[in-house]
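Appendix B.2, paired examples.
Example (i):
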Amino acid sequence: MRTRVKICGITRIEDALEAIAAGADALGFVFYKPSPRYISPEKAGEIISQLPPFVTTVALFVNEPSDDIYRILEVSHCDLIQFHGDESAEFCESFNRPWIKALRVKDASSLSLQMLEFKQARALLLDSYRPGVPGGTGETFNWELIPEDPPRPLILAGGLTPENISSAVQQLQPYGVDVSGGVEAQKGIKDPVKIHAFIRGANP
């Protein structure tokens, strides 16, 4: 099965269109103000209005109040929600919209418990754990901690680059992969060469 690819941290229309041209299945928009890849809902909506069909747009939130989530979704018109904080499963379910949950991998036992807690998600995104940092660390984690029979499709994130993506996919065969910093020229600005190399590596 082909590995789906999400390019996250989109801040410019040219990066969005380049990712789509390279074969990206999804684009991520970060609505977390402390992030260097933060984008306003209005700017995200402007970019999304110019995209072709059959590309999933993903709204990334970190412990955002529900009223703000509703407002941002209405303005941006994102298709899918990605919860990247300490949100409960009940909170994630409450928006009547498809969602994925990011889990920061600390150890095998806590990961297994979290996977069961969020089994209503469309997929589970596995990212590196660093205390106090919700994501975007640019670090890989110990892939051997991933259970062999997860309850939901897995999206691999955390420190992926054009250099390591092929081995990651061959070893783990995830449903999808998610990259942000690994395909950037600088924070928030993508590198077209890296985007194309990453997507080729995900599906050699």
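Example (ii):
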Amino acid sequence: MIRVVLAEDQGMVLGAFASLLDLQADITVVATATNGDDALVAVRELRPDVLVTDIEMPGRTGLDLAVELNRLGNPTRVLIVTTFARSGYLRRAVDAGVAGYVLKDAPIGELAAALRRVHAGERVVSPELAVAAWDAADPLTGRERELLRAVAEGAGNAAIAARLSLAEGTVRNYLSTAMAKLGARNRTDAAKIAQSRGWL
């Protein structure tokens, strides 16, 4: 029996996934969570075989969960199920040690098959996502991504400087470089472009 924790912030989708997966003879959903923090608690307590998770959720994202489980040495394998067919997300998922990345609009049979393959030690990527991975590479550095995430949250340069212990001029320089790389009109535009490509 493959033991699964399911993390999804949309209640209706969560309930549908849980019901459909429980219909599979060899899969049992041992816990569900509507945010990344609760999902992490469930995985640490229950040690499931596979965590099936969305990317964007309150608290920790699906990618954050994968990174944290790797850091903890937790053997639970991570399968991302998302609506986002973005090359940036896929690259970050691979870097985070995610074992599978499939789209939500796939039939439940495909999701179950992907889950079984991930459990068996394989790496699974939807064909549409594999094609998307050949899109433009992420040009941003880790620090530029960090600053653009703060911009996307509405933080001003002074607040970002204080949060990251940087000089305000340094923040401006990083953001100017990021804007040039993305061909953005301003810092807010740069954050939107980076988000739309899955780089944040």
